[in-house]
Specification:
Keywords (chains A, B): DNA-binding, Phosphoprotein, Transcription, Transcription regulation, Two-component regulatory system
Largest interface: A-B, 32 and 31 residues
Shape of chain A: globular
Radius of gyration of chain A: 18 Å
Modified residues (4-aspartylphosphate) (chains A, B): 51
GO molecular function (chains A, B): phosphorelay response regulator activity; transcription cis-regulatory region binding
CATH superfamily of the largest domain in chain A: Response regulator
InterPro entries (chains A, B): CheY-like_superfamily, OmpR/PhoB-type_DNA-bd, Sig_transdc_resp-reg_receiver, WalR-like, WH-like_DNA-bd_sf
Order of helices and strands of chain A: EHEHEHEHEHEEEEHHHEE
CATH class of the largest domain in chain A: Alpha Beta
Number of strands of chain A: 11
Structural class of chain A: alpha/beta
Oligomer: homodimer
Strand content of chain A: 15-25%
Domain OmpR/PhoB-type (chains A, B): 124-218
Strand order of the largest sheet of chain A: 2-1-3-4-5
DNA sequence: CGAGGGTTGTCAGCAAACCGTCAGCCGGGT
DNA sequence: ACCCGGCTGACGGTTTGCTGACAACCCTCG
């Protein structure tokens, strides 16, 4: 689950980044609007955390450019003061959520989780597919009611596949979501990871669509 | 666009209702959690505005019940105090957004608009022609309900023909679609491919227009 | 500081699937 | 009958994905 963090205050960015990693997200951090615009336009993020006061290119302008270019990823806006007119402006510019500084790190994480979930069309924090239940708040996984221990990377893979259950997810997409941008392209790390998750959650749980990617079936509903 | 408003303060409900109507929404108003739960489960809403402090059945419980029952509509939570732990709890219970009282009516409307916009559905990813059903998300194909396995290239061919059902598609066009530009011109690869697909999906399914190309019939509708 | 356990990417070997090629066949239109 | 466009079965080189072993790395604990 890859997040773009746009924040020029290095200290704040560091603590947010740390919290994101601890919560199981991978993140890229940029400090100015120009670079944010470029990355948002070229990479594929599950969500963006966007500070409004930025050097070089203002946050709202970046957001409008993204939306103008058809980018759909959810955006959470951070700003120093909770001026309500600014909130409306931000939301109408295409933001999906708004958080005034100062904020509790827990709240930021909850909102990011909610955004990612919602963008994946999955409003509940507990996802269930084929006997596997994943609680995104507690970061726990059970299979047929039995707790299963997944390593962080395994958890991220299972989580992403479940959030996109019913859709084939390519290796490239997984690589983008699970690793930072400078990861070596032709590695079989994903295959190995899939193998490890299969061993824990059942070999049939992740299906292979040869030549296209992987798929987990959603529960009927 | 129908909105469910769950709010026990009659005065506030009236002014929110008025604002919603002015913004072009139709709304139903209920005052207690029991009735809210019932309506949310039986009617179909574009979004729900949910107050947390409710008589008879608490707002968070209502939300959890809805989500437990698989209801997907976006929910915006209202609550009297901006207690951060409550926000986290609400969002993790499956809410899509959160607004502390007191709030500006404009901000509420902006958020509701954003929620409705985001929840708007996508077109169906399933194509069907002559008993063959192709799911572009799962990349699966069934014939008369029976799953059929197609290789990547076969899948692409079937997909392209179905997307252009009712039209004759030439071999040249198929070559352009399925292969890189430098593909050898006088190869019978397409013919072989068509043959393989026919064996799996029925020999009549792809018709030959000698000298022109291939054709699959669209379903009448 | 070092041992030990857990995590995760790399690598090599393997099995299966994939897919273009080819040669020969078929069948309809002139 | 003849020809040309299309069909088909067989073949094998290549690609793809899976797996076990291994090593680097990062913890924690003694």
């Amino acid at each position: 689950m890859r997040i773009l963090l746009v924040e020029d205050d290095a200290r704040l960015a560091a603590s947010v980044g740390q919290a994101l990693e601890a919560a199981g997200f991978v993140h890229d951090w940029v400090e100015d609007g120009e670079r944010a615009w470029f990355l948002g336009d070229t990479e594929h993020y599950a969500a963006v955390i966007l500070d409004l006061g930025l050097p070089r290119l203002d946050g709202l302008s970046v957001l409008r450019r993204w939306r103008g270019a058809g980018q759909r990823f959810p955006v959470l806006i951070l700003t120093a003061r909770g001026e309500w007119s600014e909130r409306v402006e931000g939301i109408d510019a295409g933001a999906d959520d708004y958080l005034p500084k100062p904020f509790r790190m827990e709240e930021l994480l909850a909102r990011v989780r909610a955004l990612v979930r919602r963008a994946a069309g999955q409003p509940s924090p507990v996802i269930e597919c084929g006997g596997v239940r994943l609680d995104t708040c507690r970061m726990t996984v059970t299979r047929d009611g039995v707790p299963v221990h997944l390593s962080p990377q395994e958890y991220r893979l299972a989580c992403y596949l479940m959030q996109h259950a019913g859709r084939v997810v390519s290796q490239g997409e997984l690589t983008e979501q699970l690793y930072a941008q400078d990861f070596e392209r032709d590695s079989n790390a994903i295959e190995v990871l899939v193998g490890r998750v299969r061993r824990k959650l059942g070999s049939e749980w992740i299906q292979t669509r040869r030549g296209f990617g992987y798929l987990v079936e959603p529960d009927a509903d």
